[in-house]
Structure formats: structure tokens, C-alpha cells
Specification:
This protein is α/β, with parallel strands linked by helices. About 35% of the residues lie in helices and about 20% in strands. The mean pLDDT is about 95. It binds S-adenosylmethionine and iron/sulfur cluster.
């Protein structure tokens, strides 16, 4: 079904590329990541990615690519040479925007950090490094393959390699973690003056080792104290808290992620990658969600299709989904932006909007964004836009 209101412009377009292998599976992780065997079939995977992309090209519709994100799994397990080959193929098929942001997710093991300089030469211009913690006992509890020294060294190597734009991932609320230890992790990260910091509270996800054998997490009260004190620390260091878990220095927001939250489009290639694409027809916008074959061995099997499924988003769901994404951003979105991206008027989702405003969770006027109270009870606010 096409959405009722015609909008003249298509959203900006990004590209997500999934690399599904890791050295070993972390007990808290529910991402599509699989323990790598002795050899990763790099060349076959690069060839598959380009063939996969080939089949998605009709969704580009003349747009240039604003950002690329290599996510995982552990994209830093692939060699710089593999990325060089891949970029040649990508550039033959796509137009890169002049100021394109190209991020690669990396683990801080020595094997990976030694490749940072070579990655920089391929055109990758942003690294996102999964530090998680600097405390040996927490790294151990999280089943990380790197230690504290490797984490510190990897951050130094980001700078040495010439990356002036990078993100560090930290997690808090870890098994046995005190408030002081969580803050100490943040302080250590800040000592490197990262342009961006993602600070996630550990969640226990179904289908993980931690779900089966739950570790003892800090008490609820400690979790709140960690959160409050951490926010205060980051803000006093000049970081802008612009999304639930994302903090950045001025102008260093993760453009790729901001595009997701602003309900932009993205092609998703690679094992299990998800995409969201909009097409423009005489009836208006059609929005499609896509997902690719999940298991690496199936994705690499030429007898199996890359595209595992796709689904049109109907008008009301488009409005609700747009809000669920945009409300994660502190700045929210304007009503005009909402209509441009979804093709529907705001009145279509009048009921949850009115309800959220009545409860003081959504600003009553101006842009669509959470009030300070709404930010405090963000899960409740987002749940109001869940379609059931
Ligand atoms: C795709 S993951 C992994 C990137 C990279 N492979 C790594 O582990 O360093 C991106 C980030 O999500 C966060 N993350 C993963 N699972 C999580 C969970 N259960 N709770 C909170 N944060 C999580 C971690 O900080 C991780 O670095
Ligand atoms: S290294 Fe990252 S993607 Fe791989 S299992 Fe651990 S958290 Fe998940």
C-alpha cells in the first residue's frame, strides 16, 4: 500500500555493511555475530557484498551515499586490502557524497589495532572502538578477548593512525561494578579526548549466555546513581548528550546513526543486514524494510538469495516508527520533517501524540521532542508509539 501524501523529496541515503564474524562470542551479545573459524573467507565475502549491493541498486534512485558504517561482528577482522577491494567495487556502483562519513567498528585487540593505519589509507575516516571497560575484572566478566593495556594502546593507535574522528564504546552497570568503577571508566576514556562516546547500560538480551546464566548486576539504585553521575561527568567535560547513549563533542555526532534516528534511508548489505528504503510514485511514498540472509554460510551460498525478506510499512506504522526513532534524539524532529520522511500528516497518529503531551512527556509546541520528564521516562514514552 502506498502512503497517502506525496512528498517531493526522498530521504538521504546511507549504506550499512555487516561483517558477521568475531574471534569468539561475548556472553552478553545478541548481534548477528559468529565465531570465526581458522580462516575468514574474505575474498568470497567481498564478492558477495558487491553482488548483494548490485540487487539493491534500484533503490538508490540517483542519490549519493552520505555515510557508510561497517558494523559487526568484528569488521576489524578483515584486512585493509579487503576494504580497498571493496571500495573499488562500491565506487563503481555508487556515488559517494564529497563529505562522506565512513565508520568501521573495531575491537581493540593488538591484531586489529596494528591495522588502523592501513585502514586510514583505504578511505575509512572514522573508527568506533569497542572498549567496554578499562577494568580487568569487568573485561573478564564480559568475556572480552582484549585486556586493559590493549584497550589503552588501541586508543593511542587510533590517533597515531591519523583518525581525528572516532568513537569509543563503553558499557556500564556491569556485573559487580561500583559507581566509582563506572565513573573511572568514563574518566579514563575522557583522558583521550574522544570526539564521540557511546555509553551503554548493559542489557540482558534473550538468546545470550547471560540470559541463560544471569550474572549478578548492580542494584537498581546503583544503576541510577551511575547513570546520573556519568551524565554529569560527561556534560561537565563539554560533551553534548544528543541521544539515549550517545555523547559527542561539538559537530561530532555520528552522522550515520543520526540518519537512522531521523528516519533516513539506508541500504543494508551483508549477512543479516537490515535496510530501509523509500520509493516515490504517483501515489506518494512507499517505505520498505529489507533484511538479508542471516547465517554467513547461507549468505555465501550462491544457491541462496541475499534478500531474505522485505515488508512495506503502512501509513500509520510509518508515523509511529518515525516517532520511535526521532524521540531518541534530544533535538527530536520538526513536523515538516516528519511529514517529508513518512509521507503522512501528523494527525494520523494523533492519539499517542495527544496522550504523550497530556502526560507532559512530549513538548506541547514546536518540534516533536521529549520533555525533560519524557527523557527520564523515555521507555514509557516510546512504548506509546508501539503499534499493537
Ligand atoms: C555491534 S556491537 C560490537 C562492536 C565490536 N564487535 C565490539 O564488541 O567491540 C556495538 C556495541 O554495542 C554495545 N553492546 C553490545 N551488546 C550490548 C548489551 N547487551 N548491552 C549494552 N550494550 C551492548 C557494546 O558497547 C558494543 O561495543
Ligand atoms: S566482539 Fe562485539 S559483536 Fe562480537 S560477540 Fe563480542 S560484542 Fe558481539
Amino acid at each position: 500500500m502506498s502512503l497517502p501524501i506525496a512528498s517531493q523529496t526522498l530521504p538521504p541515503l546511507s549504506l550499512y555493511i555487516h561483517v558477521p564474524w568475531c574471534i569468539r562470542k561475548c556472553p552478553y551479545c545478541d548481534f548477528n555475530s559468529h565465531q570465526a573459524g581458522s580462516d575468514i573467507p574474505e575474498a568470497a565475502y567481498i564478492a558477495a557484498l558487491l553482488n548483494d549491493l548490485e540487487q539493491d541498486l534500484h533503490w538508490v534512485q540517483g542519490r549519493s551515499i552520505q555515510s557508510i558504517f561497517f558494523g559487526g561482528g568484528t569488521p576489524s577482522l578483515l584486512s585493509a586490502g579487503a576494504y580497498t577491494q571493496l571500495f573499488i567495487g562500491l565506487k563503481q556502483r555508487l556515488t559517494f557524497a564529497d563529505n562522506i562519513e565512513i565508520t568501521l567498528e573495531a575491537n581493540p585487540g593488538t591484531f586489529e589495532a596494528e591495522k588502523f593505519s592501513a585502514y586510514r589509507q583505504t578511505g575509512i575516516n572514522r573508527l568506533s572502538v569497542g572498549i567496554q571497560s578499562f577494568h580487568p575484572e569487568h573485561l573478564k566478566a564480559l568475556g572480552r578477548v582484549h585486556d586493559r593495556e590493549q584497550a589503552l594502546r588501541a586508543i593511542e593507535m587510533i590517533r597515531t593512525a591519523g583518525f581525528d574522528n572516532f568513537n569509543l564504546d563503553l558499557m556500564h552497570g556491569l556485573p559487580g561494578q561500583t559507581e566509582e568503577q563506572a565513573l573511572d571508566d568514563v574518566r579514563t576514556a575522557l583522558s583521550f579526548e574522544p570526539p564521540h562516546l557511546s555509553w551503554y547500560q548493559l542489557t540482558i538480551e534473550p538468546n545470550t549466555e547471560f540470559y541463560k546464566y544471569p550474572p549478578k548486576l548492580p542494584e537498581e539504585e546503583t544503576l541510577w546513581e551511575i547513570q546520573d553521575a556519568g551524565h554529569a561527568l560527561l556534560e561537565s567535560a563539554g560533551f553534548q548528550h544528543y541521544e539515549i547513549s550517545a555523547y559527542s563533542q561539538q559537530g561530532k555526532q555520528a552522522r550515520h546513526n543520526v540518519n537512522y534516528w531521523q528516519f533516513g534511508d539506508y541500504l543494508g548489505i551483508g549477512a543479516g543486514a537490515h535496510g530501509k528504503v523509500t520509493t516515490l510514485g504517483p501515489q506518494g511514498l512507499t517505505i520498505l524494510r529489507t533484511w538479508k540472509t542471516r547465517l554467513p554460510k547461507d549468505y555465501l551460498n550462491p544457491d541462496k538469495p541475499f534478500l531474505a525478506g522485505s515488508e512495506k510499512i503502512d501509513a500509520e506504522d510509518a508515523g509511529l516508527e518515525c516517532m520511535m526513532n526521532a524521540l531518541r534524539l534530544h533535538q527530536g524532529i520538526s513536523e515538516q520533517h516528519f511529514t517529508e520522511r513518512t509521507g503522512v500528516p501528523l494527525s494520523l497518529i494523533d492519539r499517542p501524540i495527544t496522550e504523550a503531551r497530556r502526560k507532559g512527556l512530549l513538548e506541547a509546541e514546536g518540534d516533536l521532542r521529549a520533555t525533560p520528564l519524557g527523557r527520564q521516562y523515555l521507555n514509557e514514552l516510546l512504548a506509546m508509539f508501539l503499534n499493537d
